[in-house]
Design goal:
The protein is an all-alpha fold. It is built from one helix and no strands. The protein is rod-shaped and about 60 Å long. The protein starts with a helix and ends with a helix.
Protein backbone atom coordinates (compact mmCIF):
# COMPACT_ATOMS: atom_id res chain seq x y z
CA UNK A 1 0.00 0.00 0.00
CA UNK A 2 2.78 2.40 0.91
CA UNK A 3 4.55 1.62 -2.36
CA UNK A 4 1.33 2.31 -4.27
CA UNK A 5 0.94 5.69 -2.57
CA UNK A 6 4.57 6.47 -3.29
CA UNK A 7 4.03 5.66 -6.97
CA UNK A 8 0.97 7.90 -7.09
CA UNK A 9 2.89 10.72 -5.43
CA UNK A 10 5.77 10.26 -7.86
CA UNK A 11 3.38 10.30 -10.82
CA UNK A 12 1.70 13.47 -9.55
CA UNK A 13 5.06 15.20 -9.20
CA UNK A 14 5.97 14.21 -12.76
CA UNK A 15 2.65 15.53 -14.07
CA UNK A 16 3.19 18.73 -12.08
CA UNK A 17 6.71 19.17 -13.49
CA UNK A 18 5.42 18.48 -16.99
CA UNK A 19 2.68 21.09 -16.51
CA UNK A 20 5.19 23.63 -15.19
CA UNK A 21 7.42 22.97 -18.21
CA UNK A 22 4.51 23.64 -20.58
CA UNK A 23 3.70 26.91 -18.80
CA UNK A 24 7.37 27.88 -18.83
CA UNK A 25 7.69 27.20 -22.57
CA UNK A 26 4.55 29.21 -23.37
CA UNK A 27 5.81 32.10 -21.26
CA UNK A 28 9.23 31.93 -22.94
CA UNK A 29 7.69 32.02 -26.42
CA UNK A 30 5.70 35.11 -25.44
CA UNK A 31 8.83 36.80 -24.06
CA UNK A 32 10.84 35.85 -27.17
CA UNK A 33 8.14 37.37 -29.41
CA UNK A 34 8.26 40.60 -27.41
CA UNK A 35 12.06 40.69 -27.66
CA UNK A 36 11.94 40.09 -31.43
CA UNK A 37 9.40 42.91 -31.83
CA UNK A 38 11.56 45.21 -29.70
CA UNK A 39 14.68 44.37 -31.73
CA UNK A 40 13.02 45.11 -35.09
Amino acid sequence: MRVYLFCLEFQNQNIYKFYLNILFVKENKRIIKKIKKAVK
